[in-house]
Design a protein that fits this description.
The protein is built from 5 helices and 27 strands. The protein is α/β, with parallel strands linked by helices. The chain has a domain of 131 residues. Strands 2-3-5-7-9-11-13-15-17-19-21-23-25-27 form a 14-stranded mixed sheet. Helix 1 packs across helix 2. The protein is elongated and about 80 Å long. It starts with a helix and ends in a 5-residue tail after the last helix.
């Protein structure tokens, strides 16, 4: 790379009279290097077609460039309809006034250049949906002004640099859909609003301390284990939580389902146990989803989830009657989908003549009851065709609670 930069600098010296004079020389060197190492994949309207070195003002004519006082301050490489291939050059570090570096989805390969750590003014770094490989450079932890880091949908591997979540201004961290492994730091000090690490190979427990500012948290489709920390129920700003498809065990923190802003909860396909708690929730919220299916949750259903629009409690070990509050919520139209199949429930308080809304989906099959005639079930195919659980299973479970769902 040093040889390439030297050649480019010599080239600039030779042809300087014909080059634009209103762009800093080091920035011009970086742009030449970028054009040399990235390739257009669009045959009809390539992204670099506007990068004409004879243009009088690259800042106004080069696609993807924003400048201030002869320095490039924002660079957006490629567009969705103009994808790029090739590799990212180390010479990007010459753009020392850069505050935003964006790479559109494409086929860019190779590692993330370590030299990006020299871009100390960087606020946004987004290199999403390409084929970048190797680890996340630990050196990125020196970017003290970084607000947004999105490296999602690549082929990155290795562990998460432990100091990355100490950056003092980092608000958005998206590393989803890579091959990251190892454990997460137990304390996250950055003032994060959005943390998305889903679809990786992360292991170990959840951080015991998460920032109170957090509004979006997704760690689904990993290999994480251990209990859900009680600190989750102190995140009063949390609106979206997805910890599904991991190996978490133990109870759901008592007040988690009652957080005032939390209307999308995905905890399905873990090994969670215990009951639902009984804290109060806000009224019905359009679009709210709670999925606690395919766990080992047990006990009688509380009405804590009354009014959730789509509620999945199937494939657990719940017993007793379905709360009347849930039935009324379906009848009013507040709850449009209520899946309770594959539990040990013994009844549902539906009177003869009650007509549920046409848009409602209700499934109580394979429980310890014969659904009353008033129940018109709309079950998924995965529920199977057997309406009632065998009496022997219900008898054994009611005595010792050891039969799985």
């Amino acid at each position: 790379m040093a040889t390439i930069l030297l050649v480019l600098q010599l080239l600039i010296l030779l042809i300087r009279p014909s080059l634009p004079q209103n762009l800093h020389p080091s920035d011009l060197t970086a742009l030449l290097s970028i054009k040399a190492t990235l390739t257009d994949l669009s045959p009809t309207n390539p992204f670099f077609s506007t990068w004409n070195l004879t243009a009088p003002d690259p800042c106004s004519s080069f696609a993807g460039l924003t400048c201030t006082l002869r320095r490039v301050t924002a660079l957006s490489l490629g567009e969705p309809s103009f994808p790029l291939a090739g590799t990212l050059p180390a010479s990007l570090s010459l753009l020392t006034d850069l505050t935003q570096l964006l790479l559109s989805p494409g086929l860019v390969t190779g590692p993330i250049p370590l030299q990006l750590a020299h871009l100390t003014n960087l606020r946004v770094l987004s290199l999403t949906s390409n084929r970048l490989t190797g680890p996340i450079p630990t050196a990125l932890s020196t970017l003290r002004r970084l607000h947004t880091l999105d490296l999602s949908r690549n082929q990155l591997s290795g562990s998460l640099p432990p100091t990355l979540t100490d950056l003092p201004q980092l608000k958005i961290l998206i590393l989803a859909s890579n091959s990251l492994s190892g454990t997460l730091p137990q304390t996250v000090n950055s003032p994060l609003l959005h943390l998305d690490l889903k679809d990786n190979k992360l292991t170990g427990p959840l951080p015991s301390s998460l920032p109170s500012s957090l509004r979006y948290l997704s760690l689904s489709q990993n290999l994480m284990w251990g209990p859900l920390p009680n600190g989750l129920q102190t995140l009063s700003e949390l609106a979206f939580l997805d910890l599904s498809m991991n190996r978490f065990a133990g109870p759901i923190p008592a007040q988690l389902l009652s957080l005032p802003a939390l209307f999308n909860i995905f905890l399905q396909r873990n090994n969670l146990s215990g009951g639902l708690g009984s804290g109060p929730r806000p009224g019905p919220v359009p679009g709210s989803i709670v999925d606690l299916s395919h766990n080992c949750l047990s006990g009688e259903l509380s009405s804590v989830l009354e009014g959730v629009e789509s509620l999945f409690l199937n494939n657990n070990r719940f017993t007793g009657e379905v709360p009347e509050a849930y039935v009324k919520s379906v009848w009013r139209g507040s709850t449009r989908l209520l899946y309770l199949q594959h539990n040990y429930l013994t009844g549902i308080p539906l009177r003869e003549g009650v007509v549920l809304p046409d848009a409602a989906s209700l499934c109580v099959s394979y429980n310890c009851m014969v659904p009353p005639p008033a129940v018109v079930m709309t079950c998924p195919a995965s529920a199977g065709g057997v309406v009632t659980r065998p009496a022997a299973q219900c008898s054994v479970f009611s005595h010792n609670g050891n039969t799985g769902g």
